[in-house]
Design a protein that fits this description.
With about 775 residues, this protein is an alpha+beta fold. The chain is built from 26 helices and 22 strands. The protein is about 55% helix and about 15% strand. It is a multi-pass membrane protein.
Length: about 775
C-alpha cells in the first residue's frame, strides 16, 4: 500500500535513503507484531493479542502521519492520508488485526516500490558507478596517480590490465585490447592499434598500454553519458504526472464512498473497510516503475535517455528525421572496388598503396590501410616518405617508388583506367590512383557505405508505429537520393544547411511528434528543435550529444529502433497496469461498501493488487524480441569475418571479366583460372558451410526455413555460375594433343557474362546477408 510521496530522486543513482532503512525496519516490526498477536490469540490471550496488534497499528500510523505532513508541506494532498484514516479507523472501531495488517502492507508496499525502482535503475546506476575517478600519469620522475580533473590534453597516461580508460585519447606504440561493453552493450574485446582513438570508461582487457590524452575529464565521451544518466528518472513523464493528479480526485472519492457506506448502513466498520482498499497505489506505483524500467532496459542496450518524459515522448513519435553521413552511413570512406592494370592483383596493389599510406593521417589513406588490414595483408616498411597536401603520398617500397593520390598528369588513360573513372562518376565514388615508378597500375574507389543495420532499422521503425521517415543532409543530391531509395524513405532533402534542417524539423513537428537523429555539430540545432533529439554518441560530436534527449552510446543505428520499441512498450505497460489496478481497487471499494469485504481481508486483497501491479510494471525490463543463442551469434560473427576475407574473390571475378573484354580475351585465361581456384577452394566451401551450419541455426531463431529460402536460392545460383566457369576451363583444355589450352572465340561472350553475373550475384547476396543476418551478431 505504498505511494511515492517521498521527495523526488535527483537521479537514478539515488534511491530513497529511508527506503533502505525505515521501510525494512517497519516491515520487521509490524510483521513481528502481527505474528506475536496471532500466537497470543491462538493461545487464548485475546486481550494480549489486541494490545500487540494495537502496537503494530501505531507503529505504522506514526510514519504515515509524517509522510502526509511532508506531502502537505510540498503543497500536495498526500495519498497516504487514506492510509492514516484507515489506521485511525481500525483503532476507533476495534479492528486491531486489520490495523496491523494495514501497517504491514503499508511498510511492505513502500519497501517493494523502493526495491522495484532500485532494480529498474540498476543499469543506470552501473553507468555512474563505472565512471573513472583517477588516472596514472607518466611524468619525468615516474608514473603518478592523479585525480582525473588534473589530466590535460597531451598528457601520457598508463592504463594497466583491468584499468578503466580515464579520458578520451590515442593509443601509443602498441595495440590496446578493450572491453567496450559499458558503452556499447556488446561484451566483446576490440583491438585498437597505435594511433587509434579510444574512449573513456572502456576497460583494458589486454596488456598494459600507454595513451596520449586528447580531452579533459569534462570533455570526454563518458562524461556526457554520465551527465545524461544523472538526469534520467521517471519524474518527468506525463503518465507519471498523471499519478499526481490522480490523488486530487481519488482522496475525496474514497472519503465520499466511505462516508456513504457508513451513512447508509450505520456500520462504521464498512467505512473503515472502504478506506483499507481505497489506495491509489496501482497508478502511483505502475507509472514510475514501468517508465524507469524502460529507461533501465534502454541503458542496458546502449541507449541513454535523458528522463522519463523523453522516453514517453519517444513512444508517441510518428515522424523520424535522419541525417545521412555518420547516421545512415558509416561516416568514413571505405574501399568499394579496386581497378587494376594488367599483371596486378588487388592484394598486391593494396599492399603497396597501404605500405605508403600507413604514414599518412589523411582520411582516404586511413581507409586504404584499414582495407589492407581487413584483408590480412602484411604491410612493408616504406622509406623517403613524403606527403604533398592535395596531391597524395609518395614513398619507396621494396625499391620501387609508389605514389598514392591524385593522377600526376592528364595523359591518355588506358582502358582499365577510363573504366574506373566512369564507374566512379556513376557511383559517386572518390578515386585514389596508385602509380609505381610513375606508371599507373591501379585505382581504388572509395565511398561512405550504408550501414548494414540501416535498412532493418527503417523497417523496425515502421513496425513500431513510425508513419513517416525522411532524410536531411548537407550532401549532394545524387548520393542522398540513392541512400533514400535503398532505404525506402518517404522524403529526401539534400544540400541542407543547419538552419534549413531546423526549419524542416519545425514543419514536421506541426503535424506529428518528431524525432531528429544526427551525429555532427551541424545537427545540434535540429536535435534541439525536435520533440526528441537522438545523438549518435559513439562517433558523433559532443555538441550533438549535449543537445539530444537520447544518446546511442554504441555505433549502431538500429539501437534507435530498440529505443522506440522500448518507449512504446513501457508506456503501454504503465497505462495497462494503472488502469487494471484502478479497476480492481474501485471494485474492491464497492464490495467493501456493501459489507462483503471486512477490513482485514481488504488489507490482504489490496496488497495482492499492489504486488500484481509492480510485477506487471517490471515487465518493461524484459524484451519481447527472441534472443539469439550465443552459438548462433558466434556463427554470425565467423561468417561475417569470412565475408570480408572473400572480397578478394568478388574483385577477382570482375578483374577476369574485364580481362575478357580486352582485345580478343584469349590472354585472360590465367585470370579465369585464378577465379576458378578461388571459387573452388574458398567461396563454395564458405557457401556450403552456411547452408550446413548457419542457415539451420537462423531458421530455428527466425521461425522456419522459409526465412532463409531466398538466400539458399542465391547459393544455388552462385554454384551454378561457378560450375559454368569451371566447365569453360575444361573446354579450353580440350585442344589437339600437344596444343596449349586456350579460350576459343565462341566461349568469350558466355564466359564474360558468367563472370559479370557472378560478380553481381555475389555483391547482392553478400549485402543481403550482411544486412539481414550478420548485423545481428555485431
Amino acid at each position: 500500500m505504498g505511494s511515492p510521496d517521498s521527495p523526488p530522486s535527483s537521479g537514478p543513482s539515488t534511491s530513497r535513503t529511508h527506503g533502505h532503512r525505515i521501510e525494512p525496519a517497519l516491515t520487521l516490526m509490524t510483521g513481528l507484531c502481527l505474528a506475536a498477536g496471532a500466537l497470543a490469540w491462538w493461545a487464548g490471550a485475546r486481550t494480549a493479542a489486541d494490545v500487540i496488534w494495537v502496537i503494530g497499528t501505531v507503529t505504522g500510523l506514526v510514519p504515515a502521519v509524517l509522510w502526509v505532513a511532508r506531502a502537505l508541506r510540498r503543497g500536495r494532498t498526500g495519498v497516504d492520508l487514506i492510509a492514516v484514516l484507515a489506521l485511525a479507523g481500525t483503532l476507533a472501531v476495534g479492528e486491531y488485526l486489520a490495523g496491523t495488517l494495514i501497517a504491514l502492507m503499508l511498510a511492505t508496499g513502500r519497501w517493494l516500490e523502493s526495491a522495484a525502482e532500485r532494480r529498474a535503475t540498476h543499469d543506470l546506476r552501473a553507468l555512474l558507478e563505472h565512471a573513472p575517478r583517477s588516472a596514472r600519469k607518466r611524468t619525468p620522475t615516474g608514473v603518478l596517480t592523479v585525480p582525473l580533473a588534473q589530466v590535460e590534453p597531451g598528457d601520457v597516461l598508463v592504463v594497466g590490465p583491468g584499468d578503466v580508460v580515464p579520458v578520451d585519447g590515442r593509443v601509443l606504440d602498441t595495440t590496446a585490447v578493450l572491453d567496450e561493453s559499458v558503452l556499447t552493450g556488446e561484451s566483446l574485446l576490440r583491438e585498437h592499434p597505435a594511433g587509434e582513438l579510444v574512449r573513456s570508461s572502456t576497460v583494458n582487457g589486454g596488456d598494459v598500454f600507454e595513451m596520449r590524452a586528447t580531452a579533459t575529464e569534462a570533455d570526454s565521451a563518458y562524461a556526457e553519458i554520465v551527465r545524461l544518466a544523472r538526469q534520467a528518472g521517471a519524474g518527468g513523464a506525463p503518465v507519471v504526472r498523471l499519478a499526481d493528479r490522480y490523488a486530487a480526485w481519488f482522496v475525496p472519492l474514497s472519503l465520499a464512498v466511505s462516508g456513504s457506506a457508513w451513512w447508509l448502513s450505520g456500520d462504521p466498520v464498512r467505512a473503515v473497510a472502504v478506506l483499507v482498499v481505497a489506495t491509489p497505489c496501482p497508478l502511483l506505483l505502475a507509472a514510475p516503475v514501468a517508465i524507469v524500467s524502460g529507461l533501465a532496459r534502454a541503458a542496458r542496450l546502449g541507449v541513454v535517455v535523458r528522463d522519463g518524459g523523453a522516453l514517453e515522448r519517444l513512444g508517441h513519435a510518428r515522424t523520424v528525421v535522419l541525417d545521412k553521413t555518420g547516421t545512415l552511413t558509416a561516416g568514413r570512406p571505405r574501399v568499394t572496388e579496386v581497378a587494376l592494370a594488367e599483371g596486378w592483383s588487388a592484394a598486391r596493389l593494396l599492399r603497396a598503396a597501404a605500405s605508403v599510406d600507413q604514414y599518412s593521417s589523411h582520411v582516404l589513406a586511413r581507409a586504404l590501410v584499414d582495407e589492407a588490414h581487413l584483408r590480412s595483408l602484411e604491410l612493408r616498411p616504406a622509406s623517403d616518405v613524403g606527403e604533398e597536401p592535395g596531391r597524395g603520398v609518395r614513398g619507396v617500397v621494396d625499391g620501387a617508388v609508389v605514389t598514392v593520390g591524385r593522377r600526376e598528369n592528364d595523359d591518355a588513360l588506358p582502358g582499365w583506367a577510363r573504366s574506373a573513372e566512369n564507374r566512379a562518376v556513376l557511383d559517386g565514388a572518390a578515386v585514389v590512383w596508385v602509380c609505381v615508378d610513375g606508371t599507373p597500375v591501379g585505382a581504388v574507389l572509395l565511398r561512405d557505405p550504408l550501414r548494414f543495420d540501416a535498412p532493418r532499422t527503417v523497417r523496425r521503425l515502421r513496425a513500431a508505429g513510425i508513419d513517416r521517415t525522411l532524410m536531411l543532409t548537407g550532401d549532394r543530391p545524387e548520393p542522398a537520393r540513392e541512400v533514400g531509395m535503398m532505404l525506402g524513405l518517404d522524403a529526401v532533402r539534400a544540400g541542407q544547411s543547419p538552419a534549413q534542417k531546423v526549419e524542416a524539423v519545425h514543419r514536421e513537428r506541426a503535424h506529428a511528434v518528431t524525432v531528429m537523429v544526427g551525429d555532427g555539430v551541424n545537427d545540434a540545432p535540429a536535435l534541439a528543435a525536435a520533440d526528441i533529439g537522438v545523438a549518435m554518441g559513439a562517433t558523433g560530436s559532443g555538441a550533438s550529444s549535449e543537445a539530444a534527449d537520447v544518446v546511442l552510446t554504441t555505433d549502431r543505428v538500429d539501437r534507435l529502433a530498440d529505443a522506440v520499441t522500448i518507449a512504446v512498450r513501457s508506456r503501454r505497460i504503465a497505462v495497462q497496469s494503472a488502469l487494471g489496478g484502478m479497476i480492481l481497487s474501485l471494485a474492491a471499494m464497492v464490495l467493501a461498501a456493501a459489507g462483503l469485504i471486512p477490513p482485514a481481508a481488504g488489507a490482504l486483497l489490496q496488497e495482492g493488487i499492489d504486488m500484481a501491479v509492480i510485477a506487471n510494471a517490471l515487465r518493461a525490463l524484459r524484451g519481447t524480441e527472441p534472443r539469439i543463442e550465443p552459438g548462433t551469434r558466434q556463427l554470425l560473427r565467423r561468417f561475417a569475418t569470412e565475408h570480408t576475407e572473400l572480397r578478394e574473390v568478388v574483385d577477382a571475378t570482375r578483374e577476369a571479366a574485364e580481362a575478357l573484354s580486352d582485345r580478343d580475351g584469349s590472354h585472360a585465361l590465367p585470370a579465369v583460372r585464378r577465379v576458378d581456384q578461388l571459387l573452388t577452394e574458398r567461396l563454395l566451401p564458405h557457401e556450403q558451410a552456411e547452408e550446413r551450419e548457419l542457415y539451420p541455426a537462423l531458421a530455428a531463431w527466425l521461425g522456419g526455413t522459409e526465412a532463409t529460402a531466398t538466400m539458399s536460392r542465391a547459393h544455388t545460383e552462385i554454384e551454378r555460375l561457378a560450375n559454368r566457369v569451371h566447365t569453360h576451363l575444361e573446354l579450353a583444355g580440350r585442344g589437339a594433343p600437344g596444343q596449349a589450352a586456350e579460350l576459343r572465340p565462341e566461349q568469350i561472350s558466355d564466359l564474360r557474362d558468367c563472370l559479370y553475373g557472378l560478380h553481381a550475384v555475389l555483391r547482392l547476396h553478400f549485402a543481403q546477408e550482411e544486412e539481414n543476418y550478420f548485423s545481428l551478431g555485431r
